[in-house]
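Weekly structure sync - notes
Attendees: PM, LS, DV (DV joined late)
Agenda: review two folding runs queued last week.

Item 1: First target. Sequence and structure tokens pasted below for the record.
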Amino acid sequence: KEMYVEWLVVLLCVAGIAQYAAYRSHHKRVPIAAVTAEDTAVFKSFQWNYLVVYFVVMEAEWLQGPYEYALYRSYGFNKEDIALLFITSFTSSMLFGTFVGSLADKYGRKSMCQVFGVIYSVSCALRLVPDFGVLMFGRVLAGIATSLLFSVFEAWMVFEHFKNGFSSRSLSDTFSLATFGNGISAILAGLLAAAVKNLFDSFVAPFLLAIVFLVIATSIETVTWPENYGDSSIEVSETLINAMEVLQSDYKVLLLGCVQSLFEGAMNVFVFMWAPALESSNPAQADELPYGIIFTCFMVCIIIGSSIFSVLVHRGFVLENIGMGLLATSALALAVPYFFTNAMILMSGFLVFEVCCGMFWPCFGTLRGQHIPENSRATIMNFLRVPLNLFVVAALLKVSTLTNGSVFLMCVGCLVLALGLTKYSTMQQPQPQQQ
């Protein structure tokens, strides 16, 4: 345990330094005389109106993580039943995601953000019922909500961002701040979840608290957000067809989606595998692993990654080159468990991978904002999640038959393929000048 506490102290210091460097880099790159729209109160007001909602929503999302498995175990379900519940949410997201995305483009992104709040609240409330069928239905709703969470909020923000004439660089700033705040939200959620669980002596208490945050976020959206659409003049079926045509005709969007699916697929498998890998490094002390401290270390690394991305962007690095660097580093980091079993070496690799995750979200979020067409943005973003969910479901079904090292090696293969696709994409267009 002492080793992980020491890691946490060091990482907190690094996070402080990285955030200070990001702050200095941003203000150094913007002369006082060169006041643009991004520096005005209008942009800051818009940016924080979105970020406050995003942080509150992510707090609700993170609150559900720490005790989900423990809740199902307390209801008497075995590992196979619990695995089926988790797989159900990924399958639901895969099956219904494209449809709900097209509804957002047709009927409004703000409206579907509100629908998200209702659906996810119902899903949380259903955790009160210790019936497998009811919980299964709750996981179906959670899968739909997840598809909305990772598409319509971003689609709403990107539309409003460019409608107001803000630049691509300021979009990178918003994504970087969102990733930074997401890490903070995760840490706070872990503390809050533990506190309310202990206060009420109930594994379901964090899920009920999540409903409170969802109500707050939905209320803010309702009062302060304007509505925006993809193409509301066409039917939902036409939106789906248009999205498919974009993926077939625009190789840039297709490759971007493939890279996103490969990275996020590896990341989701990592979420399931880091604990077994650390436990196997010292089986005699597996029950003594400080999971909360390790999780906090990972979230601090996310914060560090977002700060590093902000520094690189403000120093003029090309997004695609940042992407290739983080993909290559991620592949090396997840190759560590295939060659080593020492706990310190494993933890080092895992921390590096989490830093790369902190860079991935703002980097590829900005690329999506630049390349995905506005008229079917939410639909396309959910189409891009289909192979991700398919990969995760397949991996979870097979993970029990593979060694830990083999599973991580599979993730490395995904990341190397993603790196190759990103490199191919950059070779098809002229490269802007880079510092």
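Item 2: Second target, run right after the first with the same settings.
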Amino acid sequence: MYPCFSKWIKSHRDLPLKINQWCNVVRWEFKHPTPFIRSREFLWQEGHTAYATVEEADEEALAYLELYKQ
């Protein structure tokens, strides 16, 4: 992911860059999972960001933490 940032961000005008990624993940287990407790497939969500300053990144992180509290 992050090597792509150097291709996408060429100037401070390209910031902030916020990317949200969703994908299905499958566990390749050899044992049989217990039904209804743990499944082999689940949805994975992750976010990647780049900011011009540390202060801007901290402010955004604190805002997201406030959202998670709700």
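Discussion on item 2: The first strand starts at residue 17 and ends at 26.
Action: LS to circulate a short write-up before next sync.
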